[in-house]
Sequence to fold (320 residues):
Amino acid sequence: MGWTADDVPDQTGRTVVVTGANSGIGLETTRELARNGASVIMAVRSVDRGEDAADDLREDVPDADLRVEACDLASLESVRSFADRIADADLDVLINNAGVMAIPRSETEDGFETQFGVNHLGHFTLTGLLLESLLERSDDDPPARIVTVSSGLHERGEIDFDDLHGEDEYDPWDAYAQSKLANVLFAYELERRLLTADANAQSMAVHPGYADTRLQYRGPEQRGSRLRVALNRVTNAVLAQSADAGALPTLYAATALDAEGGAYYGPGGFMNMRGAPERQASADRSYDEETARQLWRVSRESTGVSYDLPRPAADVDATI
Ligand SMILES: NC(=O)c1ccc[n+]([C@@H]2O[C@H](COP(=O)([O-])OP(=O)(O)OC[C@H]3O[C@@H](n4cnc5c(N)ncnc54)[C@H](OP(=O)(O)O)[C@@H]3O)[C@@H](O)[C@H]2O)c1
Fold:
């Protein structure tokens, strides 16, 4: 038997931010962190949905220490406001979990294609703004962790620097895969920069395999395709693991004492869609440092958020 939620170590005294904490994997991650004593800041785009989820969760974990805060990743202003409001919290872990998948083309408040904007640029912004709080710790403390939730579908992703926002050509699945590849490239580049800074923090990427959540219905719902919603219900019932099983790689990366910075964790069972978490290899192109640096530069320019971290030693391009 592999690692399960029963193996989450005591989290008393730790403060964790989870984006998209009201639904699916984010909710199950929040539940297990709270059950084990963590204070969880639930970063949600709808405070009403967040409060409802927190109320439900408290029925299961009555003493759960939860704080619900608005954080719409489709609005840089909302992300900034969230970061300001939680500036008083001593953060230990940030879980970049929220996401949308294969939705019709739309744009965020700042004019980014929504999947790239929410899944990647919103989290790039959030992480940059919370970094100082995450790094405020002594060398004796366990390292802060930044866990970014990607997808096995990152393997079909390409970063199209000439058309990042799908203005010339838009395919919902390609846009999703691009955003999820960006998640892994970001997590690895952040780890390299943390290492260069000798910071007491680790960055890792995870994927949940295939888990039965709301994710699969949002695209068809937005397209008004009831048939596709019905088909996805059947596929989910047959093939998907539960949302709580899907949360295990995230929980492992966020809490396991032996989890490693720069790693990619996902379920080790059937076709890596289900099962206990293990360290895995991500797609070859996710290890491409040149692409990662270029993505970092574009992300910084797009969001206006600079990280107070030195560039990795191998990075000799002063323009990045
Ligand atoms: N389920 C899977 O099989 C699977 C597979 C691979 C990867 N993933 C990844 O797992 C992560 C969690 O997805 P899930 O499966 O748990 O799906 P989910 O149940 O649909 O949850 C997604 C969460 O993201 C939030 N969200 C969406 N847009 C947002 C925005 N603009 N600002 C802030 N939050 C926003 C949603 O909030 P609302 O409820 O308010 O909309 C919801 O809380 C995603 O990154 C996804 O790409 C999932």
